[in-house]
Write a structure and sequence with these properties.
- The chain is built from 9 helices and 10 strands.
- It is α/β, with parallel strands linked by helices.
- The chain is globular.
- Helix content is 32%, strand content 23%.
- The chain folds into 2 domains: 173 residues, Rossmann fold (3-Layer(aba) Sandwich); 66 residues, no CATH class.
Length: 264
C-alpha cells in the first residue's frame, strides 16, 4: 500500500529524516514509535506531500502527490486545524464537499455520536475545549473512510471514552482491510493493536519488527523499544538531529489540505 524509498528531509543543516525506507502491506496496522523530535510527524507530512524531500513515496503504486493516491489517503494530524467561524456540523459538511462525498450525513451522525459531540453540533471551532477539538479532528479524518489512514498521536488530549472509541475504530478498520500508520511516543496506548512497528530516533529508522516476531522473543513492545533506543552510541547518531522545534506544529493548510483533498 505505502512504499517509502530512501527519503531524506533537511531543515537547514539539520537532518529530520536520513535515508528512510519501509513498506506497509495492505490491511496492516503499523505503529511509528519514537521520542519527541524523532521525525515521526515529518515522515507523515512527507507522505501527504506537505513538505519537500529527497527520495520516492508511492501509495498503491501511485506517486503520493497524484490524484489517484489522494483519493485513497487520509490524515489525522496531531494538532487540530479548525476554522473558528465554522460550527461542528459545518466542519463536517466542508470536509464532505472537499472529498466530494454525497451520502455522508449518516456516517457523520454516527461519528459525532460515538465521540460524544452530538450536543456540540452548533458550537464554533474556537468554542470547543481542546479535548473536543481533538475529537472533531478525529471525526473529520474518519469521515471519508479512506483505504489508507495516517494518525499522528491520536490519543493525545482524549478522555477514556474517546480513547476506547479510537481503539475500536482501529480494530474495525483492520477488519475492513484498511491500512493504518499510527504515530505515537506513548507505547501503552497502542499495545496489542499493531502488526508491525517502526522505531525512529533522531531521523533514523532504528528498527522494524513484526508483532509475531516480538512475541516469539518473549518481549513486550516497551522492552524492545528501550533495548533499541537506549543502546545507541551518541556519536553514531550525530548525523541526524531530529525534527526541529519550530517544525513540530502541523502546517496551517485548512481542512481540505490537511485531509488530502480529492483530485479531479
Amino acid at each position: 500500500m505505502l512504499n517509502v524509498s530512501h527519503v531524506t528531509k533537511h531543515y537547514g543543516k539539520n537532518a529530520a529524516l536520513s535515508d528512510i525506507s519501509f513498506h506497509l502491506a495492505p490491511g496492516d496496522v503499523t505503529i511509528l514509535l519514537g521520542p519527541n523530535g524523532a521525525g515521526k510527524s515529518t515522515i507523515m507530512k512527507s507522505v501527504m506531500g506537505f513538505c519537500r524531500y529527497e527520495g520516492e513515496i508511492t501509495v498503491a503504486g501511485h506517486p503520493n502527490k497524484s490524484p489517484e493516491a489522494r483519493r485513497i489517503m487520509g490524515y489525522i494530524p496531531e494538532m487540530p486545524a479548525l476554522y473558528p467561524n465554522l460550527t461542528v456540523t459545518e466542519h463536517m459538511e466542508f470536509l464532505a464537499r472537499a472529498y466530494r462525498l454525497t451520502d455522508y450525513k449518516e456516517r457523520a451522525d454516527m461519528l459525532l455520536e460515538r465521540f460524544e459531540l452530538t450536543e456540540q453540533r452548533k458550537k464554533f471551532g474556537d468554542e470547543l475545549s481542546k479535548g473536543m477539538q481533538q475529537k472533531l479532528n478525529l471525526c473529520l479524518g474518519l469521515l471519508p473512510d479512506p483505504d489508507f489512514l495516517m494518525l499522528d498521536e491520536p490519543m493525545i488530549g482524549l478522555d477514556p471514552h474517546a480513547i476506547k472509541e479510537v481503539r475500536a475504530f482501529i480494530e474495525e478498520m483492520r477488519t475492513a482491510g484498511k491500512t493504518l500508520l499510527i504515530s505515537t511516543h506513548i507505547i501503552d496506548s497502542v499495545d496489542m493493536l499493531w502488526d508491525e512497528t517502526l522505531i525512529l530516533q533522531k531521523g533514523l529508522l532504528r528498527a522494524n519488527v513484526m508483532h509475531e516476531d516480538l512475541a516469539a522473543q518473549g518481549k513486550t513492545l516497551e522492552e524492545y523499544f528501550f533495548d533499541v533506543t537506549e543502546g545507541i552510541d551518541a556519536e553514531a547518531m550525530s548525523a541526524g538531529t531530529g525534527e526541529p522545534e519550530e517544525e513540530k506544529a502541523p502546517e496551517k493548510k485548512g481542512l481540505a489540505g490537511l485531509f488530502g483533498r480529492r483530485g479531479k
